[in-house]
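Protocol step 4 of 6: structure prediction from sequence.
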Amino acid sequence: MGLLGVIFPEQYGGAGLGYIEYALAIEELSRVDGSVGLIVAAHNSLCSNHIFKFGTEAQKMKYLVPLASAEGDWGLVADGAGGGL
């Protein structure tokens, strides 16, 4: 459905939509299942958006393209939370 790259340009595997569409998508997902809405929001905001905003072109091609097109995934681990960092 393109939700894991909703705010990123198509050249990076995203849907090319804006933040209003992003917010509406998160709202509708969360209406049915808040955890799914949070997963999609975290994927777009905590992970992929940092690469899009601050990454080099090479980093965007290597990491953002698979993340935005749902071919890649990421994990968030906090020190002391059992993640073994």
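Step 5 (inspection) to follow. The mean pLDDT is 89.
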